[in-house]
Amino acid sequence: MPIVLASSSPRRRELLEKAGLVFEVAVSPAEEIHDPEMEPHVLCELNATLKAAAVADCRPDATVIGSDTLVFIDGIPLG
Q1: What tens digit of pLDDT does each residue of 11-65 get?
Q2: Which fold has domain 3-78?
Q3: Are 9 and 1 in contact (CB under 8 A)?
Q4: Residue-range domain boundaries for the chain
């Protein structure tokens, strides 16, 4: 079964390569949600799931990896 990374992130690609995985990259068309009312870990999980699900719809033959990152400094989200 093919593995598909639902991200264009060079760092995520590097991590999977270092893990020795053979994979394809497919940039997810999913729109990220930016909701300051949501707990950060819930928001990250939701966005990762949305990205993976959007790619999985096009690639039902594959295992799809989705991920998301939030960076906070002193409780303030960056980007």
Answers
A1: 999 999 999 999 999 999 999 998 888 888 999 999 999 999 999 999 999 999 9
A2: Maf protein (3.90.950)
A3: no
A4: 3-78
